[in-house]
Every structure is written in C-alpha cells, then in structure tokens.
C-alpha cells in the first residue's frame, strides 16, 4: 500500500508539472465566468428594482388620484406605500453619492424599495464599482430627473389630505382641480420614467455585450495559450526524443568503445543487453544468451572457485549488491577453453524508484593478473639464477623460527660464499661470472632435499635453509655440495674455470630467535671458513670466541650507524705537556667518545675495532675533522682565550688509504678558515707503512700548508726504523706499552731511549704515551723525552673544557 501511494503521488506530481498552466487558465476562466454571472445578476436585480421604482411612482399617482376623487383612507395608504418605494431608493442613491457612503443606509433603502435581500450586494457592488462610468451615470441622471417631481407629488398629497380631513365632502370643482394637477404631474413624470427605462435597458444590454466580448476574448486567449503551450510541449517532446536518440547513440558508441564488458539483466536475471567488449571477453554471441539466466552462460573456473562460492556470487549479482568477499578477481572460462580474469561491479537499475534490473560490469584484468604474478615472482626470486632472493629467504627463515617456538624441530642454515669468484669476472667479464653462478646454482640445487630452500643472497653469496635437518646431516650435505662444486668446471672462451665454496653452518636453536641474529652468526661462520683457508665448512659453536667477537663487531655496526643518525658522538681532549720548557699554548690530542642509547659514555676501545673491521672509520674520521675544525674556528673568534698551539687529530688507516682524504681536508680548511699551523695529524706506524705512497703524498702536501704530523704507537711495528726516514713527521709518539713498563723493565726503558734518540737524530720531537705516575715523568725527563701524555699530566676531558683553560699545567 505505501508503494502504491508513493507511485500515485509521483505520477500526480509529474502530471501537475505538465498541466498546471491549463489548470490555471481554467481557474481564471471560471473566475471570469463567475464574475460575469455575478455582474449579470446585479444588472438583472437593478433592472428589477427599476420596475418597482416605475410601478411605485405610477401606482402612487393612481391611488392619490382615487383618494382625491373619493377620499377613501385605503387609497391614501396605498398611495403612501407605493410612494415609499421611489423615496427609499432615493435615500439609497443619495447615500451612494455622498463622500462617505453608508452600506447600511443603502441596504435599508433598497430593501424598503422592494428589492430581494440576496440581490442587494450585487446591486450595491454594481453601482459602487461603475458609478463613474457612463453605463451607470446616464440611467442615474434620468433617475434623478424622475425623482424631482416626487416632492411636488408629496406637497399635493399633503394638500389633498389636509383638505379632506377639514372637509370630507369637498366640492367638485376642488376635486377636479386636484385631479388635473395629478394628471399634469403624471404627464411630467412620464417622460423621465420612460427615459430612465430606456437608459437602464441600454446600459444593461451594453453590459451584457461587454461581458460577452470580454469572455469571448478571454476564451480566445485561453485557447491561444493552450495551443502555444501544447506547441511548446510538443517541441520539448521532440527535443527530448532527439536528445534521447543522440544520447542513445552516444551510449552505444561509448559502450562499444570501452574495454569493460557491460551486461544488462532484468529482475529475473535474464540478459537484456551486452556490449561488444563483453561479447569478446566471454567469447559468446548475445543472440544465443538473450533471455537466458546468468548461470547458464557465465561460467567460472571450478579449480579456482568452488560451486558454492559461484552460486553465492550469482545470487548477490541478481540482488544488485556484491558482498565484501565477492570483491576480488574471478577466473572466467570461455566456451573455447580460454581463461579470463575479471573484476565484477554491479549496480541496481531503477525506473521511477522501482528496481528494473541489474547492470553488471566486467573489467578484464588478465594482463594485470599475469603482470602481478610476474612482479610477485620477481619480488621473491633472483632473475639470474631463478632462485628465491634474500627477502623471500628471510621470510621463510622467519616462518621456520616461528615453528621452532612451537616445539617443532627447526633445522639448520648454510651461508655459502664462492672463493676467488672475482677472478672469473676480472678475467672474462660478468657474462662468464653469470654463467658460473647459474652452473653453481644447479649443482647446489641437485644436492638438496625437496623441502630445502636455496636462495641467492647477493653477488656470489647463497643461503640454504634446511628444515628439520640435524647438524651432522647438515654438515654432510654442506660437504657434499662443497665437493660437487669443487669438481665443477666452466669452459669459457677456451679457458677453464673452477671455484670452491666457503660454507658457514649454524644450527637453529632457541637462542637464535631472530632472522637478523641467525644471518649474523652464519655470516661470521662463513667468514671464519674463509679465514681458516677457504674451501671448507665451518660449524658455528655457541662458545666460539672468534665468532662471538665478530658477532659483537657486527652488532656495533648498527649501533654506530644509529649514533651517526642521532649525532651521539662527542669530542674529548687530553693535554700533552712539555717536559723541558714552558708551554706556549694549548697542546692536546682529540679523542672520540660515544653516548650509548642510555646516555652512558662509551670509550673508543669498545667500538673502534668494529668500525675498522666494517669500513666505518673514514666516516668517523670525517665527523671528527669537521667538528674539531668548527670548535677551533669558534675558539679563534673568542677574545682573551689561550691560543691553540697544537691540536692533534687521529687519522685511521682506512682514511689514509683513501684517494679523496686530501681533497676533503683542503675543503675543510677553506670552509672553516682554520690556521693549518695549529693542526697535527696523527697516523699510526702500521697504517703509514701499509699505505706508504699515499701517506708520503699526504704528509708532503699538508706540511706545505703548515700542518704537522705525528707518528703514533711508534715501536709497535716490525720495520719502524727502516721506514722512518721516508716519513717526514714532526713528532714520534713512543708506544705506550714501552712507557708503561719502563720503570720495571730495562728492555722497555732501552726501547724508549732508543726511539727518543733516533727521533732527535732525524730532527723529530718525541712524545711519551701512557705516562701514569710522577715516576714516569721523572724518568722520561731524565732521558730527554720532549713531551708527556697520560694521567700523570691530565685526564681526558670534554674538548670545550680544554679549550677554555687559562693556564697550562706542567708535570712536576
């Protein structure tokens, strides 16, 4: 019932939008007709009143004449009653002509004149509305002319009345005179009465003509407007039909051009329309599926979609709304056996708010699906070898570790690195290296079990996951692969290449609870295999000190990188004091410290070895140089501060071997404007000898600018004295191990003395490290050593405090 009422209301509203002008015209016509009828009724009432007015005057004279002749009272009363009619109408007319007409006076006058009460409003409206129009003015003028004799009639009646009351038997001569006077008044009043009658009749006829003409014109206007409105509606209908035709053609062109398949179904799920793309996509002809249900021709791959899932989908499609579980790719099967992957979209079709069918859109995503599968494969596999890549290997390793937490046997992991693989790339190019990698991949895969996972982790490194494999079996498999690769030969451009494997093996135990920890440990085990001679399998043991140390270094790598990102390095300085002369300014060595994650200070011995092992020292050296230069530049701008005589900065062997260190230092001098004569760069004896040509060039160029150099830990190497003459350094820092033991060990004292003497012979000043007691100071002074550095002189302090010193302490 509510639906029926809603539809009825909708149709009525639509009909009103079309016919409302006609209804308005009909209403106006009805109003006009009603007004005309009302006006005619008023004219009729006015004409009827005129008859009463005329009869009243005539009858009044008639009865007055009888009264004059016979003297009967009935005749006189009849006279009075008939004369009251024109007199009452005269009162109404006079009220109408007054500046402030009284409706009650007019109404009472017309009623007394014998007019019907129902006609009074129309008569008053007609006279009031058209009072100044000629149609009314002329009859009223004649009316006034006829009324002017009423006073004479009244005067004559009063005279006759008085005479009759005085002498009921009036003489014949008197009676004849009265009757002659009455006849004379009758003749005088008659033309006015006739003129009023004619004028009122003429006005009535003219009013009727006017109303007829006006109604005729109104009817013609209504008809003309109706014709115009109909023409407009017809034009609008033709335009709508034209627009619908254009739109239909455009829709057909659009549906024919788009790549998506569009299918229209009725409320029963029967096919009504199918665009060309849908026909091509489904591989069917529409005439064969017209008026057939969707389930009869829309087929899905049963190996992908169970029958219950397909039935649920078709039901949702006919309902015009897909469920969340339907919004994925569907695998269609064409009659020719080809498969298409589509995504479905449905929309409920409605006509006037009622469902009329369903629109089904099929988007062909077969190419996207194939491409996605390729992308997915590439995201998890290595292009060169077809093996799983590092990301997929780590994912599977993480899954295996998760299973081990559920008391299931985990297995083992192998980390495989090809020995001397770089020789093949350098000799025959990367194509030969790629061929060798593919060949090795095949050999490794051939020696694995079905559930094992072989992955290329990068370069010449492979990872092998052995689920549920105990350590001894894993070791046998690893050695079996090692021997297979050792026997493998690659022929390339007439040359024969072989390679061997260094394999790290680690058992997955509960202690190794993360992917990162497992890979870190197995990488270190592989590194140990290389260190021990290559072409071997190294089994990680939890108590292996070498492996644990390297694991610790690897742990520090991440911490150091995070420290760089969070700027947690800080600079300290330790004073270097002269032993035989007064200090001429600040002389100190810059030391590096690190604030850990908890804000605690970490000495360099904890992280420098890891930085050296994993190549982070160049970055650390550059950080130190930049920040020291910034401090020195700031210090030079401050007045009344003790000048810096010598600031020693350590350079690592990795930085010293780099080709760009000199350019970096020159840029920093230019950027900060630091006086090169303040700087002394410390290089270790071993790093200087390892990079001798580079060290010589660096020292020579920077000494030209005014920089000085110090050879650190001198005496710890095997060839110190032999290389000393090639290195133009300004200071020799005597290795602290000799200084620390010189008071108890004569050999150490002799080494300190020998180094000091050789340095002086070569024109170099000497600095003793690890000077920890006043006894060491006295002994070094006795030997003639120039400078001392250690706790007996000063402890390391933040560089800001050292630069703020006003007085220099000299050891006693």
Description of the structure:
There is one protein chain. This protein has 812 residues and is an alpha/beta fold. 59% of the residues lie in helices and 16% in strands. It has 29 helices and 23 strands. Strands 13, 14, 15, 16, 17, 18, 19, 20, 21, 22 and 23 form an 11-stranded mixed beta sheet that branches. A 5-stranded antiparallel beta sheet has the order 2-1-5-4-3. A 5-stranded mixed beta sheet has the order 7-8-6-11-12, sandwiched between helices. Helix 1 (2-70) packs across helix 2 (73-97), helix 2 (73-97) runs antiparallel to helix 3 (103-112) and helix 14 packs antiparallel against helix 15 (430-446). The longest helix has 86 residues, at 172-257. It is elongated and about 200 Å long. The model has no long low-confidence stretch (mean pLDDT 79).
